């Protein structure tokens, strides 16, 4: 609640012309505003943030209890194999995300962002909540992991549609000169969502016995997604449609085939490829630092489960404020400088900070993790607004979504699986550090090649 109040209190207030009624062209929906007054704009932005918060919480919960899920959903005769299979189930939906981006992105560019965002938050909340009622492997055999993967595929579809629609919705509501600031609130919302999941998992792990956690405790974080989904749906229903989309529709600029048009333009295809490469550090950093790290610290570094979750929680708390600062700063100094500086900073400090994680000291592990989290926040707080600014309104959600989700699937969703397998094959616990540094190098050089968009209007 405090996090939501913080966001609501700090949302930008705009002074616009009075609302006027319009009818959208080539669309099944109508809107009553082109440029909304301040209160309406604030409500719409807040609706976007709440949806992002809920969907990222739903997705992050899986990583936080991965060790327990390995016991619950897979045969218990080989614990290492169970952990690996759990991360396989984590990775598979990320290869389903580009389909979600293509379908939901096309809907967003044809019918408006708001309606699609309502569908996505519903799908994500229901699929996550249903995980919490699945039977265990001991009770149902192969049905348990199959059902888990099926629900994860629904999550993958919803998560694939969210970045293009959600962040475009926020950027288009923000107005000139504060897009970085507004979209950074969504990035901070993801940190708070992951922090909530981390603290919840840490609390359950601390107060419940291992038997209770394996029996019923692991279900609670998933079941929480259901009431959160209802809240998100109600708030998103109160939001207004994006003014950029509304104006494009009024002027007859909404295309009936956004996907085809996106791939027909050489400039758009090049921007989509940049959406694959530019977020490399963003993708690897998110999944290594916040999803894989608790399991790695427990299984490979021999910290307790609570210690691993607490280190992650501290990283998230620091990162929440860091991404807000990064977004605001990028409105003044530009996106390009922020992205390149953050990526190359990780190249410099990645190995030393990772060495701190391997020393067996909670204090040193926390210091190394926080420093890496700060580098990650410099990229994360700026990435989504940068990608939204690469595309015109008529194909923004579909082109942005496909490019971003392809990169996320390859370099992010598969990261825990790849790193776990490489550690098992090589016996080296330094694999995550190499992965982070190499992806940071590629992302840093990609950032140097983009055009600065912070000081320009959104493309139409």
Automatic annotation (TrEMBL):
PROSITE patterns linked to this entry: MFS (PS50850), SUGAR_TRANSPORT_1 (PS00216), SUGAR_TRANSPORT_2 (PS00217)
Top-rank taxon, per record: Bacteria
GO MF annotations in UniProt: symporter activity
Membrane association type: Multi-pass membrane protein
Keywords carried by this UniProt record: Cell membrane, Membrane, Symport, Transmembrane, Transmembrane helix, Transport
Subcellular location: Cell membrane
Major facilitator superfamily (MFS) profile domain sequence ranges: 44-454
TM annotation in the entry: 45-76, 82-104, 116-137, 143-161, 182-204, 216-235, 271-293, 305-326, 338-357, 363-383, 404-424, 430-450
InterPro entries: H+-coupled_symporters, MFS, MFS_dom, MFS_trans_sf, Sugar_transporter_CS
Main location: membrane
Gene3D superfamilies: MFS general substrate transporter like domains
GO cellular component, one term: plasma membrane
Family membership noted in the UniProt record: Belongs to the major facilitator superfamily. Metabolite:H+ Symporter (MHS) family (TC 2.A.1.6) family.
Entry protein name: MHS family MFS transporter
UniProt source species: Amycolatopsis acidicola
